[in-house]
Amino acid sequence: MAGPLKTVALLGATGSIGRSTLDVVARHPDRFRIGALSAHGRVDALLALCERFRPDAAVVSDPAAYPALRDGLAARGLPTRALAGPAALDEVAADPGNDTVVAAIVGAAGMASTLAAARSGKRLLLANKESVVLAGELLMRAAREGGASILPVDSEHNAIYQCLPADDGRQGVRRLLLTASGGPFRGRDRAALAKVTPEQACAHPNWDMGPKISVDSATLMNKGLEVIEARHLFGLPPERIEVVVHPQSVIHSLVDYVDGSVLAQLGNPDMRTALAYGLAWPERIDSGVAPLDLASLARFDFEAPDLETFPCLALAYRALEAGGSAPAVLSAANEVAVSAFLQGQLGFLGIPDLVQACLDATPAGPADSLDDLLETDAAARRLAGELITRMRLQ
Ligand code: NAD
Ligand code: MG
Questions:
Q1: Are 215 and 202 in contact, with CB atoms under 8 Å apart?
Q2: pLDDT tens column, 48-61
Q3: Angle at the Cα of 139 (from 137 to 142), degrees rounded to 5?
Q4: Which ligand is nearest to the CA of 156?
Q5: I need a labelling partner for 273 at 20 to 30 A (CA). Which of 56, 75, 253, 347 fits?
Q6: pTM check: above 0.90
């Protein structure tokens, strides 16, 4: 028996994680219903999802898209409430009618609603890693105080969550080993990276993901953000969180124990496994992911990350060691750099250069309140924007 129906608010419904979540939800109508869906501005895509999943509320975070959403819902005869603007995301994240919140917005834009879900004691399926990097301490505190359960759905953190002891999360743990695919440019040298295009950077060998995280995977910043995410979620110091490159992306991460045991979670590279785990925990449900065929995989490879060619991973460790607002600077500068790269305004190697320049120019400040963090985020974005203009003028 599945128990009472759970109501899910899916923030970032039109993205890659959003799609995978809805695929799992649709397989289990006896367990889950959709309470709210959000998109930034893609009203047509959101309306199509509303027709199919009939949520109580639909949110467009871009207020300019509100009339199209309202009229589209009315034209389809749907009773779904139309909401708009960033505050509406916080509202549905905190709504007592929703017991589960899937945080699948990309970037710092997801921070406030992720915090709202934590404060309101939800089951929080956390994909939006940038909010953990920006506001890790605040988020963990909000979850403790609000009584929220954070279920990591980033595949590495989901793997670690599954491999940690259930009682005291860290007893006997020596190290966390995060696996990295190495991205589409693994094995290349710096010179070969100077001219790579956004299309090449977004063509990930194993995962089908949104553009920002695809570029982050190509620079290894994704793994850097994940190291910071792991530090907050699992409470281990940076020197006990290591990264190993595993190009097949089948071992999603590992936990090394003091007795020499190393536990790993394996599976085909498909986010529906982690999402099904988070949705149904502590039960297990079908996710639609094919069973792993080890004989046809034949082998697993491992290598150390190349920090000289991909300096973003080292920059993330540096920001984590510096503490305070440094991770927020790293993440904000990276968001600006990735967006400039995707728009053809910055070369691929300009991404780590820009992040480093922003870290160099910004002394680590406090990160004790949301206001501090929003200020840091805005200042780092301004600085990054100015530096890009200067780099283009050179
Ligand atoms: P995506 O680009 O495919 O989708 C992003 C979603 O966020 C869309 O629904 C979009 O409408 C919404 N959005 C964009 N800008 C917004 C804004 N300013 N305000 C509100 N909403 C906005 O991204 P994705 O690949 O699904 O990734 C989402 C998050 O999950 C990211 O933080 C990413 O790092 C994380 N994640 C993704 C994967 C994956 O396989 N895609 C794996 C692990 C973690
Ligand atoms: Mg990941």
A1: yes
A2: 999 999 999 999 99
A3: 110
A4: 2
A5: 56
A6: yes
